[in-house]
Protein 1
Amino acid sequence: MKNTTYTNINTDEIKNWLKDNLNEERYIHTLGVSEAAEELAEIFNLNKEKAMLAGLLHDAAKCFSNEKLLEIIHTHIPDIKDCELVNYKTLHAPVSAYLAKTQFNIEDSEILDAIRWHTLGRVEMNAFEKIIFLADKIEARTRNAQFRKKCLDLLQEEKGLDKALFECFEATIKSLADRRLAICHITIDVYNELLTKI
């Protein structure tokens, strides 16, 4: 059992809760994101323990029903923006941050913010938020190996983190458009911001 600095609940207990509340594929993905987050934290000299926890909990609410997600949002997350509700696939992000705080006693704002914004992103994301967003897209257990390699290669370049992130936002927006799903303006704003940076 491994205790952490940022919660009084050890990682074995967290993993057991996740096993009980996620389907098998999502749980495997979650382990992959946690590993990728640590990998990226190492590259960018960020806190590996915080990255591991954010990766583990980023999808904690992913397998909740839409009805349950909306109930929690409307009852407990007053600062939710209307734009965050336009696509059911992103509802789990703010709820996962809520669970990290209430279920797993995490108070660290950097962990909570990285979980909250790992689907939509937001303008002026810090480096920690960026690596958690990226880890979700390039983890080695379930994500496309070719796309992972492309992003890891981009990280070697100048402004590599922003370039890899832009690659993810471009792919996400294309995928949403192809499926005719609503795109939150926050995501478009991040895409435009990154475009000016790279």
Note: The domain at 11-143 is CATH 1.10.3210.10 (Hypothetical protein af1432).
Protein 2
Amino acid sequence: MDGTMTIPEFNLFGGPLHRLGRRLGLVRGYDTFRLGVALGLLAWTVLVILALLKGAGDKVFALEAIGVHIRFLVAIPLFFLCETWVGPRMTEFAHDIVSSGVVPESGRPALAEVIRRVDRMKDPWLVEVVFLLLVIAFVIVQPLLNIPGRTGNWELLLKESGGTGGPVLLWYFWFCLPLFRFLLLRWMWHLTLWCYFLWRVQRLDLRLVPTHPDHAAGLGYLEVVQEHFAALVVALSAVMAASHAESLASGVMAFETLYRQVPVFLVLIAVIFVGPAGFFACRLWACRVQGWRDYMGMGSRYVNGFDRQWIRGENPTSEPLLGTPDMQSLADLTNSVNVVREMQWAPASRRLVLSLGIAAILPMLPLVLFKYPVSDVAAKLFQALTGL
């Protein structure tokens, strides 16, 4: 990084699983997608083979078990695809706030300490061991909980199998689901560390410029980082939609229940993935107020002088009005004042909200078919188009 002091490279992802993937050749730099595909296929393939050997292939591939396939063929690979996408963007954001001067020389030692602290917290074995113990403990207490979705409910599946778990359920509940939940907890930990990093950054001595063209005083690249969480949003939404599809297909949930649950899920997504940008709201508001005062004061002085010279003729010069740089300077000043006026309250625009909202809603759309079957929709559409 630029500057007299060397800042450590910010890299949020690591840990024992990451190192194991490197040894196996499945992790190359930031690219961890192969590791996600391998883990998902391992869990899913063994489960399907065991189900076919037991003669339960029809149950595994039934609509009531769609959550199995979504978790391991869609969600887990998307977890790691999100790491591949967002990891480099996080590194670039940390580099950008230094190279652009947002973090001045005086604040770089504090930033370096924050990065080193995050690096220590992301990597220890203890964190992932605790997650493993948690998911194993959850398998034990799970029969006492009302887990939504058919394939997340041990008691229901055990009852359907005649009271015997068998190798299929044992593999599923003691390896597949713990693997998925472990990776989910691991992502929640990464999100916590990212929020911690942003929180500490906003407390640094920042040099924010209200006329910055990104309309976020130089912090606009944070929005780019948050947009790259779209893959994780799709994964979470797909798992949620699959759980609802299982419940709707098995008749244990009414379609109208979605009217309450989907909005809550969307709000939760907004809080998790848009909310961190709000850490900078107070700093940006203060920057806008200060910038408004400074640039309005400068603007008043400039336009008063312009008015006296070119309108009232109090300070005549031999310079012709046509082509004078004073006109361009006035326009530039006006543009600068407009940039200050339009500063965002946080480095998050409608585009970020819209992109993450679409990522959250798209996996939910097939649920509409439970209320409006394809045949009925096609018939009504044909009738509306032809008038027959």
Note: The mean pLDDT is 83.
Protein 3
Amino acid sequence: MSASSLAVMSSNELAINGGKSIRTSPWNAWPIANDQTMANVEAVMRSGRWAISGAYTGSMGYEQRFCRAFADYQGSPYAIATTNGSAAIKIAMQEVGVGPGTEVIVPGLTWVACASTVVDLGAVPVIVDIDPKTLSISLQAAEAAISNKTVAILVVHAYCSAADIDGFVELAKRTGIAIIEDCSQVHGAEWQGQKLGSFGQLGVFSLQQTKILTCGEGGIVTCCSEEAYNRLQQYRANGRIYTTQPKSKQLELVEKGEVFGANHCMSEIHAAIALAQLELLDEQNAVREDNASYLASALESIPGVNTIKPPEGLTRRSYYDYVIQLNPDIVGPFSIHRVVDAMAVELGTFIETLDAPMNINVLYNPLLSKFASTKELTQQLNPIRFDLPNANIAYNTSFAFLHHLLLGTTKDMDDIVSAVSKVVGNIEKLRE
């Protein structure tokens, strides 16, 4: 964008202050219910089997079909579907031995369930800082936080980027600590040509409403070991697993009871939706990737505006939250919440901050947990004991929009660039 264009933008009144919005037409809708999605749902509704705890109808259920398709897509031998991403994290952590007396290393800039699930299992989340370049968990910070109680590291690949998975795999080999990859923001992304989520001992994914692979609410865990697969099935189905010889009109689950399980089963309806959506993922990701590349190049022309550059090993990116960062040394001090509000009005869509750092996040209240029962545990669970300077800087200088905007046209990307230019050019009025 030229200097003259920037000057014009800064002379326009912000829409939040009564001026004209950059965007007046609607954006692409999300989620997208295509014909196959609707056909799958109708097939489930007419089948008489709406859950895996329903009787076998003579053909493979959608939950198994989706799990097998997703495992093949990931290049993993096994996959287990769950009710949501939090349940996926929970059963993955149960599989590696997370419980009372143990610790799990968790990044300080991610969704609160990554830490609260650890607390729910009676363990202590040790919250560490992020790499400021990738906004994902810092390898150095994680290694420094290891203790004799550490049983797992939750490696969250965040914000259209990825953690240093090569470094974490090496760290796991050296220490014997389990790596659980949280890939809820990176479905389809690849590191050196291999799918993220297939490097750690376990991979976990969310299929929640806003995710790039969604069924409204759901989750899935991938693993390489048949023994782990059988236990994970039990963790999510009250100690039951699929029989290898199903019989029509009989339950397809058999009782094993080898672990203390609970009901975290994905419904057949959600699985049917997920299966149809999986068929669209690569095509949609390619459109997002092209538009994101165009957008990053265009935003570079605006002084003080930066985007997240991929680490060297990330050979294919996927885009969930597209992050735009402002440099206060160039644009001056600002309230990120005012910027978010102004951008939302300019573009007529949802704009957000990053997740609040875990040490100040109002949604993360471990001291209200039943496990904060002693003075020692209260001290260990208190999130303010963790120092997260990089996470706090990123939170206060970044805003993001959801991936469905990237399914649009070049003209749509130009509207985003114009809105960013206009807001940055009027930053003084936001400070007022």
Note: The mean pLDDT is 96.
